[in-house]
Amino acid sequence: MQATSSPPVSGLLRRAKLRHFLRTRRARIAPEEVGLVHAERRRTPGLRREEVAALAGVGVSWYTWLEQGRDINVSEGIVNAVSNALRLEDTERAYFYRLTGHNPAPRPERRGRGGDQARMRALVEGWSFNPTYLTDRYGGIQLANSSAHTVFRIAPRGHNCLVKFFTDPATRGKYPDTDQVGRGLVAQFRAQSARFPEDREFGRIAERLGERSPRFAELWDCHQVDEPSQNVRRIALPEAGVVVFDRVVMRVPELPESLMVLYLSPTGAKKPAAPARELADAHAKAR
User: Fold this and answer.
1) pTM of the full structure
2) Which of 122, 228, 264, 270 is least surrounded by Cβ atoms within 10 Å, i.e. has the fewest?
């Protein structure tokens, strides 16, 4: 735990934020909240540094260095212990992880919460005439509205977007910009795997898919992490021809591992896209 020399400016700013964050979080905890019922009268509110150190199971000097913003190496285990000692909430804990140079520990999805699922379904269905779906961390479709089912031929139990693209020629045929879309899907999958570094399922999916698709294996080996521009998608649809969509990808606070993907018909395109309602009617025959 030795200090290093000549820290970059960005490191100084990060440690200044860390110093202020830890001090404010320590100050808001009353001694009585952690069992110090006989604590003497104090000039400043909150816990003392030595008390936080004791609660976290670390040395007083070491915690003092951390709170002072010294350039020391901090393990994820220590970050977690200090987070528990300071009773940090999920968003605060994630912020603390980033300030110490670590990826935040993934927040478990609240499975079995019918209210969350109902709200997500209402959100997805609310874009009824724009293809919209919700994926899990691996790109598996969890929820989709009727327009998405029609345009992407989603199976009743859903499918994995990455796997279907690289194993189904009909799916790839929908995209005039096939190579760009493929690269984007692989880069997005790679970025997702970095968000969940302890999850080995990403590696298993990549290995199985690489055995079925040489093209995927080639792109995966490139280790591309900067996702190409995916905000515009051209999709070939029966009767409507090639339709240009604005593609929007959003994270969902209620389901932090999930992504919501929304396809909007843009205005001002060189080839005007059919109105969303007409698209839904045009594809109803293909369902």
Assistant:
1) 0.59
2) 270
Residue 186, both tokens: 């692989």
Q: Which residues, 6+ apart, have CB-to-CB distance to 254 below 8 Å?
A: 110, 116, 119, 120
> Residue 16 is encoded by which pair of tokens?
């200044």
Class of domain 10-100: mainly alpha
Cα 89 versus chain centre, distance? 18
Q: Which residues pair with 134 in a beta bridge?
A: 143, 260
Residue pLDDT, tens place only, 161-180:
999 999 999 999 999 999 99
Domain boundaries, the chain: 10-100, 114-264
Could you report the per-residue pLDDT of 177-235, keeping only the tens digit for each?
999 999 999 988 988 888 787 788 999 999 999 999 999 999 999 887 665 556 889 99
